[in-house]
Write a structure and sequence with these properties.
With 451 residues, the protein is mostly helical. It has helices at 2-117, 119-128, 131-134, 138-159, 162-173, 176-297, 325-445. α4 runs antiparallel to α7 (325-445), α5 (162-173) runs antiparallel to α6 and α6 (176-297) packs antiparallel against α7 (325-445).
Length: 451
């Protein structure tokens, strides 16, 4: 009957409520798992950033230490360079002074020889002094030629100079004036070669020092650029990982929002069904209760016509109103109250679920917005880092090219300068000996005697 129908309705509502509760519990567990995953991801990111901060602090401390060492080394190099420049400047001044003195000495001696060996001086000496003492015989001339030639040949063998050997031969054969002119020309040529070699040596020393300083500078730049590239690659990798994590979090949050919306829609449909069922039940119970109240609420005269005369016939009992009628109406009223309570509870649950859903959507949208902004910021940082990496890579290639050019230049300097620098003192001494021998030969030809 009606009670069986009511029982079926209540059992159906109970089953629906249990399913709704299970669905809500599943949604809650799913949401809880998603939030725990987000928390874990955030904690992992905090751990990663903390590690990166520690690495950065360590690199910063190392960089400061390197800067301190480099500054100290630079100061020492600058002091050494200043001292070297000062010393070189003093050496250059001394060298110039010595060269100037030697040149003046050579010029004075040459002029003196020219004056003393001229025809006018020879005639004057012949008239002024005892002719018997000043006259030079042909044998003495030959002796002078022989001594001058021997001296030149000795120096030629020692220095390996073919020009001196040729001049020694000319001393034996040519006239004195032509030989003296050849000696003067050779002295001038040797002096010029000596001065040119000094300039070449100074050039080599300066170029080697410049090449060394530039190579050291470019090497430091290369090391710094490689370190910068390594740091930029690490930064780009960290930013890429962080962006991917943020995108995954945004996608997961959107999925959770979609699922929460679907669950909310399903829950609302179940709520609508539950409220409709409870209201229908209340309406049905109210109608049944109205019928019973109408029936049991009439006066006794509504149920009997008149006082019967005499006792009732055999087999009949005296008619009475059902004493359990109050219990039935009370039960129906209790069921109606329970139905109203279930309706109110369903409405409250629906309101709470709707509010929780709205809060979840609001928080999720805020999280998505924050993470989206973080993605944009990190993407900009990544783009800047990639641009800096590209520039650093180009700079490294340029530095490598410059180092290669410096190495080639150094190799060319070695080819041009090694022989000069290695044999500079010997070559200078050899030329000095040649010049001195030439002067002595000229003096011998001019009549000077050497013990």
């Amino acid at each position: 009957g009606i009670l069986r129908q009511m029982l079926d309705t209540f059992e159906s509502n109970l089953s629906a409520s249990q399913k709704e509760e299970q669905a809500n519990q599943a949604a809650y567990e799913e949401l809880k798992a998603a939030k725990e995953a987000e928390i874990k991801a955030g904690q992992d990111q905090i751990s990663t950033k903390t590690g990166e901060l520690a690495d950065t602090d360590e690199k910063n401390a190392q960089a400061k230490e390197d800067q301190k060492d480099t500054t100290a080394s630079l100061n020492a190099d600058e002091q050494f360079l200043g001292m070297l420049k000062e010393k070189c400047s003093m050496t250059d001044k001394e060298w110039e002074e010595r060269q100037k003195t030697r040149s003046m000495e050579m010029e004075a001696v040459s002029k003196a020889l020219e004056v003393l060996s001229g025809d006018e001086a020879h005639d004057l000496f012949t008239r002024t002094f005892n002719p018997s003492l000043l006259q030079v015989s042909s044998s003495e001339v030959q002796t002078a030629r022989s001594k001058a030639a021997t001296l030149l040949e000795s120096v030629a063998r020692k220095s390996g100079a073919p020009a001196l050997s040729a001049l020694a031969m000319r001393v034996k054969l040519d006239a004195f004036e032509r030989v003296k002119k050849a000696i003067d020309d050779m002295v001038e040529q040797l002096a010029k070669e000596q001065a040119d070699e000094v300039k070449h040596k100074d050039f080599c020393v300066d170029e080697f020092n410049t090449n060394k300083l530039q190579t050291e500078e470019k090497t430091r730049q290369k090391i710094d650029t490689k370190t910068s590239i390594k740091d930029l690659k690490s930064t780009i990798g960290a930013l890429t990982a962080a962006i991917e994590t943020l995108k995954a979090d945004v996608a997961e949050t959107q999925v959770q929002m979609k699922r929460a919306g679907e669950d909310r829609e399903l829950s609302n449909k179940e709520f609508q069904t539950t409220v409709a069922d409870q209201r229908a039940t209340q309406k049905l119970l109210k109608a049944a209760l109205s019928v019973l109240e109408d029936f049991y609420g009439k006066e006794k005269k509504s149920f009997v016509q008149a006082e019967p005369v005499g006792p009732p016939p055999a087999g009949f009992e005296e008619y009475k109103k059902n004493e359990s009628a109050g219990g039935v109406t009370g039960l129906l009223k209790q069921i109606m109250a329970d139905a109203k309570a279930m309706e109110a509870e369903a409405i409250r649950s629906e309101e709470d679920a709707q509010k929780a859903y709205e809060d979840f959507v609001k928080d999720s949208n805020a999280a998505i917005e924050a993470k989206s902004k973080d993605i944009v910021n990190k993407s900009e940082e990544k783009a800047k880092a990639e641009g800096a990496l590209s520039e650093a890579s180009k700079s490294l290639e340029a530095i490598a090219t410059e180092l290669e050019q410096l190495a080639n230049s150094k190799a060319q300097l070695h080819q041009s300068c090694d022989f000069v620098l290695k044999n500079f003192d010997l070559r200078q001494q050899a030329r000095s000996d040649e010049i001195e021998a030439l002067k002595q030969a000229k003096a011998i030809l001019s009549g000077a005697k050497f013990d």
